[in-house]
Write the C-alpha cells for this entry.
Amino acid sequence: MLLIHCPYCQEERSELEFRNAGDAHLVRPANIAAISDEEFEEYFFLRDNPKGLIFERWRHMHGCGRFFNAARDTVSDKFVMTYKAGEPKPDLHPAPATSATVETYEATEGDAR
C-alpha cells in the first residue's frame, strides 16, 4: 500500500483516501469554443505516457477534499514529492554530474610546455 503525503493536511495517508485526477500543469485554451476539432482532441484526449518522472493532480477524497499536485516515478510507483495546487512545477532533474576535473595552467615566460 502506498502512503501519500497531503500538502494541506500535512499527513501521510493511505492511497485509498486519494483519487488520481490526471496530468498536472495542463494549460486550457483561452477560447476553447474557437479551437479546431484537432486542437480540441489534442488538449482533451491526447496525453503522454512516459516512463519515469511524471506530474499528476490528485485529490484527497476522504480527507480535506482538496486537489494537489504530485511528482511520481512510474517505474517504481513512488511519490517523489507532493505540493499545493497553483504552485509552479518543480525542477526535479538534477544537473548532470561530471567526474572530470579541470586543471588550470598559466604559462610563464620561458616555459617549454
About this structure: Residues 37-44 form the longest helix (8 residues). The CA atoms of residues 105 and 113 lie 10 Å apart. The beta strands are 3-6, 11-14, 18-23, 53-60, 67-73, 79-84. The chain is about 5% helix and 30% strand.
